[in-house]
Amino acid sequence: MLLTDDSGGLEVQACDGTWIKAPHLPGAWIVNIGDCLMRWTNDVFVSTPHRVIHAAPRERI
Fold this sequence. Notes:
Elements: E1 2-3, E2 10-13, E3 19-21, E4 29-30, H1 34-40, E5 50-52
Antiparallel strand pairs: 1-4, 2-3, 2-5
């Protein structure tokens, strides 16, 4: 679980391999349950590849 801020950086990979920036929604939480759903459904629901690009001028943890 991750509380979003104005730093952004989250990207998800589309089916064609391109990376799409996730929009910043003030006060929103990001909850990644993709790997859990893969296990629960025997890979019927596949986890979306994602990454974080750190471009903010301040540190993030």
